[in-house]
Amino acid sequence: MIGFLRGLLAEKGDGYIVIDVGGVGYVVNVPANSRAYLSAEGQEVMVHTSMIVREDDMSLYGFSGRSELDAFKKLIGVSGVGPKAAIAILSAFTMDQLREAIVFEDSKSLTKANGIGKKTAERIVLELKDKFDSAGISADPAAEGAAIGDVVTAGGRGEAINALMALGYSRPEATSALAGIKDTDLTTEEYIKLALKNLF
After folding, report:
1. Within the chain, which residues score under 70 in pLDDT?
2. Long-range contacts for 104-111 (Cβ within 8 Å, ≥24 apart)?
């Protein structure tokens, strides 16, 4: 089992990189927003890896942080979600965005990831909600990489979180206050008003 790889970025392709480790080139599938994928060829990169072995294939998947790797393992544990679908999700969202979408049961946001349909998104939320709680997977977006396309964090809820943080509340406080709001189609202003009531 390969836990991680550190070496020079020798090549980049559509959804993968080749890492030169002591003269051996390892092909690693990575999210499009990972630090390794966004690095320039010739730079040193490091990825935490997961090896998926099947009858007709053996592939490496690499991630800039352990939180990404943990999220990948949780995602492929969902019925109907394979490695490619998990990579598509991790390419579209930062860890905070993914966690908030799942915690807030915002399956609609998850369908923004390439190849993720409504039913699959709903299954992800159903099966992972308890595993992606407000104290669970989280990451500094600057450390993990920004999302491709600048996906808005869980719609109006994400904007409400940003607004509450601008008012001086921490992200955990804002996330916790919004977690108790079950409505999924409110405006940002409505989310903020309800969240403030929960904070007082």
Report:
1. 133-155, 172, 180, 182, 184
2. 104/154, 104/157, 104/178, 104/179, 104/184, 105/129, 105/184, 106/154, 106/155, 106/157, 106/184, 108/155, 108/184, 109/151, 109/152, 109/154, 109/155
Q: What is the DSSP string of 1-52?
A: ---EEEEEEEEEETTEEEEEETTEEEEEE--TTSHHHHSPTTSEEEEEEEEE
Neighbours of 17 (CB within 10 A): 24
Ranges assigned E (strand) in the chain:
4-13, 16-21, 24-29, 44-54, 57-63
If DSSP codes are grouped into helix, strand and coil, which group holds residue 105?
A: coil
Backbone angles phi, psi at 177, to 5 degrees: -65, -35
Q: What pTM did the predictor assign?
A: 0.69
Quote the CA–CA distance of 15 and 115 in Å, as a whole number: 14
